[in-house]
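Quick question, first post here. What does this chain look like in 3D?
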Amino acid sequence: IEKKINEYYPQSLKKISQSYDSIDEVRLYSGKIYFGKIISRSNSAIIMTTPAGRVQIPTTKVKYTGIKKI
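> Answer (accepted):
Ran it through. Tokens below.
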């Protein structure tokens, strides 16, 4: 069962992890890494909620997506 993310305001990684059971990792070709929860994917962008708030990342800049290992 997939949980819907209804909260897009900034929240800690611990709260995101507790609410949604995992933390996603998105690595860009530039070397930047985002940690949070992916809430939407399309051919043009990935949208995720992070401790800094909601982030939209163009898929052309994404090198890797996966689950953060703890």
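The beta strands are 24-28, 33-41, 45-50, 53-58, 62-67.
The mean pLDDT is 85.
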